[in-house]
Amino acid sequence: MTLCRIHFPGTQFDDMELPPHQPLAEALTVQNSPVLFGCRTGLCGTCVVRAEGCVTPPTADEQEILELYAPDEATARLACQLDVTGDLALCKFEVGA
């Protein structure tokens, strides 16, 4: 089985590897990730990241939340909703940055 490498550019967090389609929110914890999770269901927006790499497109519900927190940001995603299908880089999203 090919594993997906998750990279956190600009941080001191180590890369991690996950099987494809494993829920990212279950694998990321405070100890191993700069991504914060408040709800883990896609409603609160604390886990908005810039995601570059292999992920499925956002659902309509996720896109609705992204339009509130990250309008006009094509790479913005809710980390709790990501379906990772290959290597991926995640950067913390700063509102207004």
TrEMBL record:
It comes from the Bacteria. InterPro entries: 2Fe-2S_ferredoxin-like_sf, 2Fe-2S_ferredoxin-type, 2Fe2S_fd_BS, Beta-grasp_dom_sf. Residues 17-83 form the 2Fe-2S ferredoxin-type domain. SUPFAM superfamilies: 2Fe-2S ferredoxin-like. PROSITE patterns: 2FE2S_FER_1. GO terms for molecular function: 2 iron, 2 sulfur cluster binding. Coiled coil: none annotated. This is (2Fe-2S)-binding protein.
